[in-house]
Amino acid sequence: MNVQIAGRTVGSGNPCFVVAEIGINHNGDIGIAKKLIDVAAACGCNAVKFQKRTVEVVFSAEELQRPRESPFGDTNGELKRGLEFGKAQYQQIDAHCKAKGIPWFASPWDEASVDFLEQFDVPCHKVASASLTDDGLLRHIRKTRKPVILSTGMSTMAQIDHAVEVLGRHDLVVLHATSTYPAQYDELNLKVIPVLAQRFKVPVGYSGHETGLASTVASVALGASMVERHLTLDRAMWGSDQAASLEPNGMQRLMRDIRLVETSFGDGIKRLLDREVPIMEKLRRVGR
Q: What domain count does the chain have?
């Protein structure tokens, strides 16, 4: 079963759909967000992704009042509000992505954020791993009739089964993920990718939070139809997700390696290549 997202087909036999996760790596600065969009477009990524939250809905008053130092103030609430873009910023994001020819979408963390994103006619919605058990949000997202990308970090298989049941399997992509930042290689468990594909019969991908590239490329070899990696301008920048992100050179190399691996897959039919014939004639014993 394939899924159409932003004019591209996601599923077996199609090029891997690569998403540059900007998330909150813009640090509340629309200029940084635009630079990250530019990098993703230049690298050949298929889309960029943000996240949208209604702060007072997603977090309790107690959590927002919790002390936490940041460039925005001394409480967690000041941090969360400082990182949140509003309509004016998303209008700029929408216009900039259109100018660069790259689609954008986001992870809405609450129903109001789904409605907010719908005004921009995003091509799909992403369910963050933290929202996988939020049935009300999942149902609200499904009402949009847009394709849904479900990330499965910090979840049991039973919880994933339930989320898929709530969402339905039509226009659904399931992403294997490990929600540690950055993730250690012995935590990635990439063999889950074909297990999810067999279990749900939908396109399955990989959302990676590790520091390197090899495991993400390996996910494509294991059948990932979509790959999502966080993007940053500099991993030393302030922010909780920067260390688990790829810098521009890393994203460029990832795109190169994914496309090279896809080229190397071939069609599975063993044949003698024309370029092998002179080597064969040179190296094989006569008549053997």
A: 1
